[in-house]
Specification:
The chain is globular, with a radius of gyration of 23 Å. 79% of the residues lie in helices and 0% in strands. It has helices spanning 2-25, 30-65, 73-96, 98-104, 111-124, 127-143, 148-172, 187-206, 208-214, 231-260, 278-312, 316-343, 345-352, 356-370, 373-388, 393-416, 422-449, 457-480, 490-493, 495-519, 523-537. The chain contains 21 helices and no strands.
Length: 538
């Protein structure tokens, strides 16, 4: 609950930040796409260099290092010194290569738009170092079972960014429709928008030092990397790094194809059609990640330390029991979230954009993306099980299958689908490829550790999907009470109407979902109700 509450607060602020960003530079505008590409670059480079490696090796290795005479301090100091040094060097190099990276992730852009994206990138790419520092410090806290700070630190990031956006609106004015063309952006606007985004990431990382001190941890730079047992970590990291690389290849293809839609805006003569591109895809991903971040990441983070401990002790029965319970909880939340966000895709999109065509464009991308939430969260938890078993080879191969399938589908879509449907079609292709990945991952893990006896995962999934489908049907009927999903309806006419209708319909759907699970004797319903009653009593 501590982790989930931190994530909830962070995600609420993230929504506020995204709404303010949309108010500041729009969603289906060229400036929004230029900033979207630039602000995503540090995340992409971070993932390529070390992002997935940290998740795969840090917690299991630190858990094992606690058996050392010094409690693992020497190991932690040396490992963190190595990775921080690497991050600093990579950050300097990638920032210098900003023009090359922007060109790599775009296609069909004008020289002026490339210049704006590059200027944004110079300010955004230093985020890479602070993302690495945040992950390092946070994973060490997680390995010591101090889970809260890692989840609460992004709150500070969002607060800083929101303050920066507020200052931008006050000084330079809001521009949700793209009146400020790319050639009108000056150094002041660029520095304020992108600089405060980077400042937020820096604050998110540095604040974790305070929590280190609180639990008695001290960090000291130690460059004596030889003879401290780093080889197992590096060996485990090899396959994970390969997995991250192929994932980023898929992301690169997705961004390039999505960026092509920008060139069709100037030739689009129909005002009732808005063309989604990179910025719309990023906002849809933010919404998609909301239930995943609140529920799946919180559950998986807490479970990861436990199953890593079981794996180290060769207690595979206990490992399967904890893993199975975590998977069931994740499936229960993901199924409900899928139904709610698909039904409310247009009203939620209306909160971010003002025009009906842009609402439809963003909503369609979100609906297509939501088909992949259940398998995406499922794979996320299964990957942690493989990492706990120090098996980074298997995730590499089932991720390669997913990326290969996605790239083939994305290229097909690029040549066959109209520009207005391009990003939504790619999101649907991604959902299908993730579903295939989930099936492969589950079969490989069962072969490795055996069946999940007594947990009835398949039956639970069928019951949860059925309950979610029934809740979705009731939600659509309830939406008609607010006038449906047409431009003049209460749910889409104003932001307030969108928020009110979304809240009411979501509550109805949650009630229906819980009632159906209770009727089907799914124990997660009783667990949730018991937890809610306990919170109310306290």
């Amino acid at each position: 609950m501590i982790m989930a509450s931190g994530t909830i607060v962070s995600r609420i602020l993230g929504f506020v930040r995204a709404v303010m960003l949309a108010l500041t530079i729009g969603v289906t505008t060229n400036a929004a796409d230029a900033f979207g590409v630039a602000n995503q670059l540090p995340n992409n480079v971070y993932a390529i260099i070390v992002g997935g490696v940290l998740n795969a090796v840090l917690v299991p290795q630190i858990v094992r290092a606690r058996s050392h005479k010094d409690g693992g301090k020497g190991y932690i100091d040396r490992l963190l010194t190595l990775i921080i040094t690497m991050f600093f060097g990579v950050t300097v190099i990638t920032t210098a290569c900003a023009p090359l990276l922007v060109s790599l992730y775009t296609a069909g852009w004008s020289s002026n738009q490339l210049a704006l994206a590059t200027a944004f990138a110079y300010w955004c790419l230093p985020q890479l170092f602070f993302y690495g520092l945040y992950s390092l410090l946070g994973e060490v806290l997680n390995a010591r079972s101090a889970f809260g700070p890692f989840m609460w630190a992004p709150v500070l990031n969002n607060l800083v960014a929101i303050a920066g956006l507020g200052a931008f609106i006050v000084i330079f004015g809001a521009d949700p429709t793209g009146f400020r063309v790319v050639t009108m952006w000056g150094p002041g606007e660029i520095a304020l928008l992108a600089g405060t985004a980077t400042l937020g990431v820096a604050a998110q990382a540095v604040i974790l030092f305070a929590f280190w001190k609180r639990i008695g941890l001290k960090f000291k730079l130690n460059f004596g990397w030889r003879g401290v047992g780093l080889r197992p970590a590096m060996k485990a990291a090899t396959w994970t790094l390969g997995m991250v690389l192929i994932t980023q290849i898929g992301g690169l293809v997705q961004t390039i194809i999505a960026s092509q839609a920008v060139s069709h805006r100037e030739t689009n003569a129909d005002p009732s059609i808005a063309i989604a591109s990179v910025a719309a895809s990023s906002i849809a991903w933010l919404i998609f990640m909301l239930p995943h971040s609140i529920a799946t990441v919180s559950i998986a983070t807490a479970s990861f330390t436990k199953i890593s401990t079981h794996a180290a002790a060769k207690k595979f029965k206990e490992l399967k029991a904890d893993l199975g319970k975590s998977i069931r909880a994740i499936l229960a939340i993901s199924a409900l979230s899928t139904a709610v966000l698909m039904v409310l895709a247009y009203p939620i999109s209306r909160v971010f954009v003002g025009e009906y065509p842009s609402t439809v464009a963003l909503g369609n991308v979100l609906i297509a993306m939501m088909f992949g939430l259940i398998p995406f969260s499922f794979v996320f938890m299964l990957q942690r099980a493989f990492y706990a078993l120090e098996d980074t080879k298997s995730p590499f191969f089932f991720t390669m299958a997913q990326v290969t399938l996605f790239i083939a589908g994305a290229i097909t879509v690029a040549f066959t689908v109209q520009a207005q449907w391009l990003v939504a079609a790619m999101a649907l292709v991604n959902s299908v490829s993730i579903t295939v990945q989930a099936i492969i991952a589950y079969r490989v893990l069962r072969k490795r550790i055996g069946a999940f006896e007594g947990l009835k995962l398949s039956g639970a999934l069928v019951s949860m999907v059925l309950a979610a489908a029934l809740a979705g049907g009731v939600g659509l009927l309830a939406m008609n009470l607010f006038g449906g999903l047409v431009v003049t309806s209460f749910a889409l006419k104003t932001v307030v109407g969108a928020i009110v209708s979304s809240g009411v319909v979501a509550l109805i759907m949650v009630g229906v979902y819980a009632a159906v699970l209770k009727f089907l004797n799914v124990p997660e319903a009783d667990t949730a109700l018991k937890a809610i009653r306990g919170i109310i009593r306290r």
